[in-house]
Design goal:
The chain has two domains: 239 residues, Metallo-beta-lactamase, Chain A (4-Layer Sandwich); 144 residues, Rossmann fold. The protein has a seven-stranded mixed sheet with strand order 1-2-7-8-9-10-11, with no helix packed on it. A five-stranded mixed sheet has the order 12-13-14-15-16. The chain is of the alpha/beta class. It is built from twelve helices and 21 strands. 30% of the residues lie in helices and 22% in strands.
Length: 423
């Protein structure tokens, strides 16, 4: 019967000749350090039977191998396994693979082309052969075929999806998954997992939005009747709604607000005694002089980092200001910068500024972090000691104007004159 609760040792049918043989981890509260899991997670593995053997798609975390093998043995013999497909090589999907290969040594292993080196490193087995695949490749189970679809960076370079055409089932790896444990398994039977679905997207898929859009271009035409992810509920009720939600979450919203050719530059600052505030306002005035740049000015003291991250994700340029206190930038600045790991900030133009009393390390430290986030930092940053003078505020305005002109591709560095040429 489809949709039954699962015990510790039984496979669950999710379609004709297709079973869930994964494992449940209800007590997990933190995944990969960065994700909270309020009610645990599942490690979803699947078995597909054809007229000429069996395929296993993904395995489980090593600690849950016993439950995985018990479920597998309830519906197949190891001698029947012809193919083992690994959509993603993280240990929560490959933990039971070494033992599975020992029990089914004749099985062929399929991984994405980018996954070959990683899998050999995980298994420490240089002698085993793997079959690298990409979009368009397939393997046969006789009356059924499994098709491979390359979906890199969702969320590792090696990730792929597998498509069972005869049943219109998509085995999607981490794509469309979430950390949500419920032994009823199916999205039309489990508890409310909307928060977990979007939380997972925000922390795992959000930095790769363009790759999500690229994957949807491949997956949308398939019109799957069921999506079987590597974590969380199996999506058999309105699966395309979840695909559409991914599309909505991946679309930029700011583009609808900006004019044709207009770009967005954000200035964030925090100030101890008002000097960095004065610098920020002067920089904002300089940016505002450049046509086509929409400038925004925000005091970090006035908000949590989360909403600002949403703004930075779609902006074109970023300038951050901090005083130097105890040889460092202040905590709200680091909170904001550490939060940017969940977005794709590569290539954005960025710079730092700030006032200081003694040593002034904050500007350099912020600039280094911006470079570490793969932003373009064309200026060494602007540091001013104590209270800025009118002339120094003029430097701030020039700094802001220069950054805006760089953003618009209009900046020309002043030409240095070699006086020897004048003789």
């Amino acid at each position: 019967m489809l949709g039954m609760r699962t015990s510790n040792d039984e496979a669950v049918a999710i379609g004709p000749g297709v079973w869930w043989i994964g494992a449940l981890d209800p007590d997990l509260r933190s995944f990969d350090i960065i994700l909270k899991t309020a009610n645990g997670t599942s490690y979803n593995s699947y078995l597909v039977r054809g007229s000429e053997g069996v395929a296993v798609i993904d395995t489980v975390k090593k600690e849950f191998a016993e439950a995985f093998f018990a479920r597998l043995e309830s519906v197949a013999d190891y001698a029947e396994i012809r193919h083992i497909i690994i959509n993603h090589l993280e240990p929560d999907h490959t933990g039971a693979l070494p033992e599975l290969l020992r029990r089914a040594p004749h099985a062929q292993v399929y991984i994405s082309r980018r996954g070959q080196t990683m899998l050999k490193a995980l298994l420490k087995d240089e002698g085993r052969e793997y079959i690298p695949v990409q979009t368009g490749d397939r393997c046969s189970l006789g009356d059924r075929e499994l098709h491979f679809l390359s979906t890199p960076f969702l969320h590792w370079p090696d990730t792929q999806c597998t498509w069972l055409e005869q049943e219109q089932m998509l085995f999607s790896g981490d794509l469309f998954g979430c950390h949500f444990c419920d032994n009823r398994l199916f999205n039309d039977q489990v508890g409310d997992f909307r928060f977990s679905f979007e939380y997972y997207y925000a922390h795992i898929m959000r930095p790769f939005k363009q790759h999500v859009i690229d994957a949807l271009e491949i997956l949308d035409p398939l019109q799957p009747r069921l999506i079987a992810p590597a974590h969380g509920p199996i999506l058999r009720d309105r699966p395309r709604d979840y695909m559409q939600r991914y599309r909505d979450l991946s679309r930029p919203r700011l583009r609808n607000e900006l004019g044709e050719g207009e770009k967005s530059l954000l200035i964030f600052y925090i100030s101890a005694y008002g000097s960095t505030t004065a610098m920020a306002r002067a920089i904002y005035a300089g940016v505002s002089e450049v046509e086509g740049v929409r400038a925004s000015l925000y005091d970090l003291e006035g908000s949590e980092a989360g909403p600002f991250v949403d703004l930075i994700e779609e902006a074109d340029a970023l300038i951050i200001g901090s005083p130097t206190i105890n040889g460092d930038a202040v905590k709200p600045v680091w909170d904001l910068l550490s939060s940017l790991v969940v977005i794709d900030s590569k290539g954005k133009i960025a710079a730092a500024f700030g006032s200081y009393g003694w040593s002034g390390e904050a500007v350099r430290m912020i600039s280094d972090r911006l470079r570490g986030l793969k932003m373009r930092v064309p200026h060494e940053g602007l540091r001013l000691k104590l209270i800025p003078t009118d002339d120094e505020l003029g430097e701030c305005r020039a700094f802001g104007k220069e950054m805006a002109e760089r953003l618009m591709g209009r900046f020309t560095a002043p030409k240095e004159i070699d006086y020897a040429d004048l003789v």
